[in-house]
Amino acid sequence: MSEPATAPNRVAAVVYNPVKVDLDALREIVAREEQAAGWDTSVWFETSVDDPGQGATRDALDAGADMILAAGGDGTVRAVAEAIGDSQTPLALLPSGTGNLLARNLELTLEDLDRSVHDAFTGTDRRVDVATIEITRPDSTVARHSYVVMAGVGLDASMLQNTDDDLKKKVGWLAYVGAAVTSLKGRNHVRLQMSVDGAEPESVKAHTVIVGNCGSLQANVRLLPDAALDDGLLDVVVMRPENLVGWIQVLTKIVWENGVLSRTPFGRRFRTKDVRALEYVRGSTITVELSEPEQIELDGDGFGEATAFTTWVDHEHLVVRVPMAGPSGR
Predict the structure, then answer these.
(1) Residue 243 to residues 180, 207, 251, 276: CA-CA distances in angstroms?
(2) What is the three-class DSSP state of 137?
(3) Domain 131-316 adopts which CATH fold?
């Protein structure tokens, strides 16, 4: 009797941003970890200005990749997640950018490439939500994208547009501070109609409106304290401070209540109610009609102007690799 055929070894694909990674070091670590885990030699796909990751990921899937390792910043991760689509191929994160927001919200290692690659090849799968957005442009065309962290209009998107990329490379998230000051000097209100889960639209005047699939930002700031990556809901924050008192309310709730009190069951008992300067809503589908074209951002990257958008959550649609449970994670 002939021996049964053995299953072929698995192969990973690395989709990498050459600006963000030390390619030689990454290749060495991947080669070591894939061999130790019994995987075949990984295949490599480079992103570019014209292809931030969607095309590279589709090529990787066409090549039969059993797992996609995304090595780059938030933009690379978003593009790879978008292209993975319905394939259910696991996504492993190799954080290499300024924000690394999905990795932060998954509580993954941020500054240890050896550990990140090891966890990719030896970890387990976790399902998380993905958000889809349809953006209506000023010329009435509609663009559809996915995002895994947040979408925003108003001060949030304007700040990103005004951020100096060279300064960002040198000082990281602190570059956003100067951009925020610049944005506040200009027209910094947006007017819109917002509907949640098909309810009657509400008129809103705000500095910024952010729709989040998860809640944590850099510097341990928890912008959306109740957001979770696998709850099937989108969390929305509307910021509309009108004066110094309003800004103090915003900072108090975000930095103190969200950042400190909300992190423990005991502390959550002392959270105050929403104030006009900072309002939260939740739903599975959010529709926004803007009074005039506004800049929009997805996962920290500008996506041009929008006159309207509808966004919804695809519950547990993305498979991500996380460390195996254990005291050391290794």
Answers:
(1) 16, 12, 13, 12
(2) coil
(3) Tumour Suppressor Smad4 (2.60.200)
Gap between the Cα atoms of 325 and 126, Å rounded: 12
> Which pLDDT band, with edges at 50, 70 and 90, does 251 fall under?
confident
Q: What CA–CA distance (Å, rounded) separates 301 from 214?
A: 16
The span from the CA of 303 to the CA of 278, in Å, is 25
> Domain boundaries in the chain?
12-122, 131-316
- CA-to-CA dists, residue 283 to 197, 212, 312, angstroms: 6, 11, 8
Asked whether 19 and 84 are in contact (CB, 8 A), the reply is no
Contact assessment for residue 234 and residue 211, using Cβ atoms and an 8 Å cutoff = yes
∠ Cα 118 30 21 (to 5°): 100
Q: Residue count of the chain, please give it.
A: 330
pLDDT of residue 328: 38
Q: Which CATH number is associated with domain 12-122?
A: 3.40.50.10330
Q: Using CA atoms, how far apart are residues 322 and 103, in angstroms rounded to an integer?
A: 10
pLDDT band at 20 (very low <50, low <70, confident <90, very high): very high
Q: How confident is the model at residue 37 (pLDDT cuts 50, 70, 90)?
A: very high
Taking alpha carbons only, the member of 107, 125, 115, 124 closest to residue 29 is 115
Tokens of 177: 């501070």
Given a contact cutoff of 8 angstroms between Cβ atoms, the answer to whether 89 and 319 are in contact is yes
Asked whether 232 and 315 are in contact (CB, 8 A), the reply is yes
- From CA 197, how far away is CA 304, in angstroms rounded? 25
